[in-house]
Amino acid sequence: MGIINLIIGLFFIGMGFLVKAFPNLISGYNTMTKEEKENVDIESLSSLMKNSFIAIGVIIIVGTYFFNWIGFPIIASLLILTSILGGVIIMIYKSRKFYSDKLNKKSKSAYVILGIVIVFIFGTFYHSSRPVEVIISKESVIISGSYGLELPVKDIQEVRLVEKIPAITLRKNGFSLGPIKKGHFNLEEYGNCRLFLHSDSNLYLIIIGKNGEKTIINHENKTQTEKEFKSLK
User: Fold this and answer.
1) Backbone angles phi, psi at 196, to 5 degrees
2) Residues 25-64: pLDDT tens digits?
3) Residue 115, SS3?
4) What is the chain's alpha carbon radius of gyration, rounded to the nearest angstrom?
5) Helix intervals (H) in the chain
6) Where along the chain do its domains lie?
7) To 5 degrees, how large is the angle CA 10–CA 117–CA 145?
8) How far apart are alpha carbons 158 and 38 in whole angstroms?
9) What whole-number distance in Å separates Cα of residue 24 and Cα of residue 193?
10) CA 173 to chain centre
């Protein structure tokens, strides 16, 4: 199971117990006046939020393990996004009955903000999943898109074309959805690497810098990967 999913799942479970023990941690409630707080059924609201956060955490942890086990890693990768968004939307909708009508009217702006956040998240998700473009010139190698970078040719020590790379042990800072991997990851034997992958059963172009850092690229079409290797070679 991905260590990131485990940490996030445990975080939500911990948050569930915290909001029940300390209701003032609940966003919005902690900024209300004393009179406004009297119009909130905080006991029921904190219980709802506790159960919701714990459910989100359990779904992330158990779901990640289960879907990876039965061979659906893409669904496992989507669990964090779908569980959090779905859980928060349901929690906000159900929490309305614990507020007075007056406070519910004031909270309408929160739904607008939530909608904007959802659109932003899915937009970011779509952008991050798009294939990268590799532009090779005599001076540099430019990798476009999310987590893109520019590698000066003078700083490249070696390029390789391989059919397999070591297993990924940790996602440090990046995007992961099934075979799509972008950003900084730890690999067995290789250590920290920058990945731009779109297939898990294809050719891999490895660019090794003079500092030893590896940048690994591949595409759904292996011909594209071969072409980029030949251009760099």
Assistant:
1) -140, 75
2) 776 666 677 777 777 777 888 888 899 899 999 998 898 8
3) helix
4) 23
5) 3-21, 34-37, 42-69, 73-95, 101-106, 108-129, 222-232
6) 3-129, 134-232
7) 90
8) 68
9) 42
10) 9
